[in-house]
Amino acid sequence: MRRKLLLGNWKMNKTVTEAKVFAEEAKHLGKEARAHKIDMGVCVPYIDLVPVKKIIKNSLIVGAENCHYLEKGAYTGEVSIPMLKDIGISWCIIGHSERREYDNETSEKCNLKILALLKNGMTPVYCCGESLETYEANGTKKFVEEQILKGFANVSAEDASKVVIAYEPIWAIGTGKSASKEIAEDMCAFIRKILAKLYGRRVANKVRILYGGSVKPNNIRDYLLQDNVDGALVGGASLEVESYKELLTNLL
Q1: Is residue 168 annotated as part of the catalytic site, yes or no?
Q2: Contacts of 227 (CB under 8 A, 6+ apart)
Q3: 137-162 confidence digits (pLDDT tens)
Q4: 96 is catalytic
Q5: Which of 7, 58, 73, 118 has the greatest number of CB atoms lying within 10 Å of its CB?
Q6: Cβ 111 vs Cβ 128: under 8 Å
Q7: In 3-state terms, what secondary structure has residue 195?
Q8: Which of 65, 96, 98, 185 is the catalytic position?
C-alpha cells in the first residue's frame, strides 16, 4: 500500500530567520505523521535548506525546489545535485508550473533532471498540469500525457517507481480555485494508467501521485480519500506552522 505524502512548497518565501522559526515549531510533526504512516516535509528555497535541515534533521523531509541536471560548470546562479547531496538533501521538485511558465522549463529538460536525480539516488517530485485555456478546451488529458511521456523518457521501470508525480492544474494554483475531488481522482487515475502502459500495473501501483492546487486544511481530507490521490503538494497552506499542522491533523 502506498504511504500518504504531504509535501509543502514554499516557493520564493521565507528568509533564513523566518525559516528557522518555522523549523523549530514544526520539527515535532514528523513523528506524529510517521505514527500514522504519513510522510511529511517541505521543499524550501536554496538559502533555507541548510538551516532548516539542521533544525529538522530527519524528522521531516527537506527538499529543494529545483536543481540543474549537470554536476558542475559555467551556469551562473544554478545549483547542482552534488551540492544538494553534500548538505543532506535527497528530494527535489522538478517542473513546477511556475518554472515552466517563467523560466522556460520544458518537459525534455525536466527529463534530464529526473534522470540525474535518480542516478544520484534522490527522489524527483515531477509536476504536471494544464492551463485554464487547455482545461476549457478539453485538452487536459492529452496535455498531461505528453508531459508524463516526455518526463519519463529513458527512465527504467525500476527507477520509475521512485519518482513522485504531482498533478497541479495551473488554473487552481494561487487562484483560490481548486479542482473538485472527482477531477483530482480522475486525473491521478489517468496518470497511473499512462504509467501502467509504460511499465506495467505493478510499477504503476507503486508510484505516489499527489494533487496540488489550492489545497487547504478544509479540503485536504476529501482529496486524500480518493483511491489514486496519494498525497498533496501544498503551497500557501504550508507557509504557516498552524495551517501546516492542521493539514496533517485533518488527515488523521
Answers
A1: yes
A2: 185, 189
A3: 999 999 999 999 999 999 999 999 99
A4: yes
A5: 7
A6: no
A7: helix
A8: 96
